[in-house]
Records
---
Amino acid sequence: MDEKGEEKLTVVSKKVTTKEIQPSDTAIIFALKNLDPDNFKDVVVQDHKGGLRIVSDLQNLSDEDFEKLLAEKEKKVAEKVNKNSKD
């Protein structure tokens, strides 16, 4: 109020500034997830249908043939281990 008791108006100036910022990939990702969660989500659901069938000829081997096969495999594994330990 001024000296006469009347309201005094004050002029205030306002300056509007527009700034441009670089787009953020992260901000875009979050916006898409929030706006359309059915199409943009982190979790992918994979539905596996069907069965698993294991075919093995080991059941038809004689004990002697099985022992020979096992010895061959153990020898190959030992060779690989020795080769890798030398490197």
Note: Residues 31 and 40 are 10 Å apart (CA to CA).
---
Amino acid sequence: MSAEVPEQTLENIKLYYTELFAQYPDVQTATEISKIIGYGTTSINDWCRKGHLKAFKRNNMNHIPKVYLIEFSLLEILSHYYPQIRLAYPGASRIPPIWQVMRGLKTKE
């Protein structure tokens, strides 16, 4: 299997996550995101500190823009189906696939 992901697949997955997170604010704290995706605040803050999930500090708290959460989710779902992608991102293998905990995420109806 090649590490090349078809462009249409990338667009479809990005659209899916954009719609999935549409109901949430554009910027959220690690605590708020932890309630959405099911990972602990400590894990999310560690991902931010290590640079896996882009964020900015405000009042000594990580604030994560939705676009970066979508980007992070996209990388995680693709790395499940295209394991070679993990080789291109050092440290990504230590991050459990986000799709495993997002099963309970409610979508807009």
Note: The first strand starts at residue 27 and ends at 29.
---
Amino acid sequence: MQASLLYRNTMREETAFKLEESKKAAEDLVLRNIRCPSCGFHLLNVYGKGHYLLQIKCQKCKFSDVIDTALFRTVRGINKRKTEWTR
């Protein structure tokens, strides 16, 4: 709560309103980590499962390109399932 009060003191009222609305919208969505396709370094966090096209640049390996965040979803436990299927 303290952080939002600080934002209101340094931002215009319209900008602070947009920030609060964005936070409310993100509360119901799933948080996902997007990693660099080249080296696996953490790039950003994305809320939701929709298609968002982003121009990114990796700070570690300098990979720079446009990515579709919906295509870079992480399926947890897939390695465990793959070993079960091969048995």
Note: The first helix runs from residue 2 to 10.
